[in-house]
From TrEMBL:
Protein localization: Cell membrane
Record keyword Iron present: no
Molecular function GO labels: transmembrane transporter activity
Name of a matching Pfam family: MFS_1
Membrane-topology descriptor: Multi-pass membrane protein
The protein, known as: Drug resistance transporter, EmrB/QacA subfamily
GO CC aspect terms: plasma membrane
Length: 502
């Protein structure tokens, strides 16, 4: 007789603290961006090293997420969640107190390490604690809104802290988030022990996956600075392919793999990881270009440019918690994900029309709102399906995969689209320059930059269309309107909603 897990009476209170932790992790990828110029001046960071303040975090985060997800499965998600929070807070304190470049970069890498432990634990805890389909839809809606909007919130928070306090508070603020979330986790989060994976850790898998992902992300970072044809760039991409291919071979043979291939080969989960990763490539590139556009072309302050993203944040919240949550119980996930990515593509297309003298209300506002609505609507079912039908002992690593697709997608998007923008800008200058004086004319320089941004945003639009096609083609799960039952005799591979038996 299959056993149904009774709902946790403290689940909604627990969700508040899981959401706080997720917000901290997601916004930290962008909160430092706004504060970076001040930090660079204060610590004397060279132009060549400043990108590492961001890259050190994303490299460690993206490279270790699978490891963090499996540790959460082995060690317990609540334990991993709490340790991740404490470590993240300690690393943030170290970074905020940094007296030189090395100390700041080391602290950012440590943040990435503990973030890789924390993020998959947070997502898998939701699938553990919410058993009712309607409640789970709402919970993933809230989580999806935070995951989608966190990066934009980071831009706003970074602007506020930098302008009214100083850059160090962009890191110190994490201590407050972490302490609140830890106290809440201790008091309200409970996890059934039956869902743990008792197998030994796959050390070869950890080494191959981590080094392969780091090589991939670092390769795109070097492509941005050294060019796509540079020997080190090509070498990193080749190394990444070899390491990740070896990882797949090893995972198919070892008894207790780090990433059981069944997690990614299941059609719906694979479709989510692929389509969401591509969508994030376009979205993160947009943050980069619009931040530069608002500050260097339109003359916005750091604070004002942060607030300029608010309509997108609002759109994400509405799309995720209202549209996505309400429709998820009535329509199949692909009919939310594919249209969501297409609406975001329309918003991106509108944003590609920017000019040097564009009106915020006429171009940026409608584009950002549609971007937010579309991505918010798509995020919610994507987050829910990220652990679609997964075995209880694999919940953490399945959750890690959706985070990995986002982190790797964000890193690739920033490097790829920035390279495309720089190339388009250079081409425009060569075809329009008439005299050396043009290169000193600010209007000419702005026109060249905006042309580059526009071309890159058109590419991002195309990437979102591809995401929509992949989501519609690969994701074929039924309407998620039934609670999942898991018992000793049940197979969970084909079940529509991830729940762990209690």
């Amino acid at each position: 007789m299959p056993e149904t897990r009774l709902p946790d009476p403290k689940r909604w209170t627990a969700l508040i603290f899981i959401a706080i932790a997720q917000l901290m992790v997601v916004l930290d990828a962008t909160v430092v961006n706004i504060a970076l110029p001040s930090a660079q001046a204060d610590l004397g960071i060279s132009d060549g090293n400043r990108q590492w303040v961001v890259t050190a975090y994303t490299l460690a985060f993206g490279g270790l997420l699978l490891f963090g997800g499996r540790v959460a499965d082995l060690w317990g998600r609540r334990n991993a969640f709490i340790v991740g929070l404490l470590g993240f807070a300690a690393a943030s304190a170290l970074g905020g107190a940094a007296v030189n470049t090395a100390m700041l970069l080391g602290a950012r890498a440590l943040q990435g390490v503990f973030g890789a432990l924390l993020a998959p634990a947070a997502l898998s805890l939701i699938s553990v604690m919410f058993t009712d389909a309607k409640e789970r839809a709402k919970a993933f809606g809230i989580y999806g809104a935070i995951a989608g909007a966190g990066a934009a919130v980071g831009l706003i928070l970074g602007g506020v802290l930098t302008e009214y306090l100083n850059w160090r508070w962009a890191l110190f603020v994490n201590i407050f988030f972490a302490v609140v979330a830890v106290l809440g986790a201790i008091a309200f989060i409970r996890e059934p022990a039956e869902g743990r994976n008792r197998n030994r850790l796959d050390i070869p898998g950890v080494i191959l996956a981590s080094t392969g992902l780091v090589a991939l992300v670092y390769g795109f970072s070097r492509a941005e600075s050294d060019g796509w044809k540079a020997g080190v760039t090509i070498g990193l991409f080749v190394a990444s392919v070899v390491l990740l291919a070896a990882f797949v071979v090893v995972e198919g043979k070892v008894k207790a793999p780090l990433l059981p291939l069944r997690v990614v080969t299941e059609r719906n989960r694979g479709g989510v990881y692929l389509s969401l990763g591509l969508a994030i490539i376009g979205m993160f590139g947009l943050f980069l270009f619009l931040t530069y556009y608002l500050q260097t072309v339109m003359g916005y302050s750091a604070l004002k440019s942060g607030f300029a993203f608010l309509p997108m944040v609002g759109g994400m919240i509405v799309g995720s918690t209202q549209i996505g949550t309400r429709l998820m119980l009535r329509v199949r996930p692909r009919f939310l994900m594919a249209p969501g990515f297409l609406v975001a593509a329309v918003g991106m297309f509108i944003l590609a029309q920017i000019k040097v003298d564009s009106s915020y209300a006429e171009v940026l506002l409608p584009g950002l709102i549609l971007m937010g609505l579309g991505m918010g609507t798509a995020f919610m079912p994507a987050m829910s399906l990220s652990a679609h039908g997964v075995r209880p002992e694999d919940a953490g690593v399945a959750s890690a995969m959706v985070n990995t697709s986002q982190q790797v997608g964000g890193s690739i998007g920033t490097a790829l689209l920035n390279t495309l923008a720089a190339s388009a800008t250079t081409t425009w200058i060569h075809s329009h320059v008439k005299s050396p004086a043009d290169l000193k004319n600010q209007l000419f320089v702005n026109q060249a930059a905006v042309h580059g941004y526009s071309v890159a945003i058109y590419w991002a639009t195309a990437i979102l269309v591809v995401s929509a096609i992949l989501a519609f083609t690969l994701v074929n799960a039924e309407v998620q309107n039934t609670a999942e039952r898991v018992g000793d005799g049940d197979s969970v591979e084909d079940m529509p909603i991830p729940v762990i038996a209690h």
